[in-house]
Design a protein that fits this description.
The protein has helices at 4-27, 33-47, 54-90, 97-116, 119-129, 135-142, 146-177. It contains seven helices and no strands. The longest helix is centred in the middle third of the chain and has 37 residues, at 54-90. The protein is mainly α. The protein folds into two domains: 4-75, Orthogonal Bundle (Rna Polymerase Sigma Factor, Chain: A); 91-177, Winged helix-like DNA-binding domain superfamily/Winged helix DNA-binding domain (Arc Repressor Mutant, subunit A), CATH 1.10.10.10.
Amino acid sequence: MPSESEAFTLIFHELFPKLCRFVEGLLNDSGSAPDIAQETLLRLYRFGIERIPPPEIRFWAFRVARNLALNAKARSANRNRLLEALTRLFQPAQANPETELEQADSAALLVRLLQTLPEDQRAALLLREQEEMKYSEIAAVLGVSESKVKVDVFRARQALRTKWHEHHRTTERRKYMN
């Protein structure tokens, strides 16, 4: 009878490629599939393979992989939605190729501006806007008071707005000087 680590090694070698293919098919993204498959098997190891009847291990792993893949897909959609919402907030939408290029530039600028925020403000704002968490939930995640979260979100929004407008004023000045 193989030891627990030997049994896990066998399961890993059998399931890892299958989980990768499954997740890649779900997400249409081969880049994140190995990470999700690895996380699935790590969770299996932590949970303990002895706690799952052997015929059900495969089903357990695929169910967990599916849930992790769907969570990753939702996070990606939330990130995209946040960038689009913030871009729309600062710039009215128009439909032409030049405007689309400007919007892509605006989204890239917004990502750069988010990176300039202090970590606590950035984390609070992303959890609020991207993950749509309540202030109390953000406070629990970050281990701070709810009032600190409210202040951090407010300051992050203010700082983004200020930096956004400063960037555009500077850009306009450069256009007129040339």
